[in-house]
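Researcher: We plan to redesign the surface later, but first we want a full-length starting point. Tokens attached.
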């Protein structure tokens, strides 16, 4: 279902499939599809809430870290042609290496060093992870 809109849950075929699964696994009598399968708007709203909670939790976790290793990845989507950049942080907490994806953002402007730096800096500031002693891991591309 990767890359499909939330409205996929409103399609007749998908709903029939779910109805079939419910009938197979129902152990407490008949289960109405509308009671267990929310509309796409509900899913979208709930996902936004989950993102907010997880971001707040991550911000608290990152506050305790004094240095990050920062890595990025850039790629283009085959179908849309949009370019994306993902910013990740790695750090040690409780004697374990932690790796977190902070953000994936559209980067449709030219992939110049300045544009990449601006996006990375903005994401690090958003997550309060901009430290003077951060280490940046890059490939050997001239724009990095």
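Model: Full-length starting sequence:
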């Amino acid at each position: 279902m990767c890359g499909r809109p939330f409205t996929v849950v409103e399609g007749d075929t998908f709903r029939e499939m779910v109805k079939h699964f419910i009938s197979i696994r129902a152990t407490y009598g008949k289960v109405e599809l509308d009671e267990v399968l929310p509309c796409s708007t509900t899913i979208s709203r709930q996902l936004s809430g989950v993102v907010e909670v997880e971001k707040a939790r991550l911000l608290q976790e990152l506050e305790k870290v004094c240095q990050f290793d920062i890595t990025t990845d850039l790629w283009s989507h085959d179908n849309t042609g949009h370019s994306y950049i993902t910013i990740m942080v790695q750090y040690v907490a409780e004697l374990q290496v932690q790796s977190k994806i902070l953000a994936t953002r559209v980067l449709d402007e030219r992939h110049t060093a300045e544009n990449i730096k601006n996006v990375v800096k903005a994401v690090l500031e958003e997550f309060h992870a901009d430290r003077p002693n951060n280490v940046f891991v890059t490939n050997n591309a001239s724009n990095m």
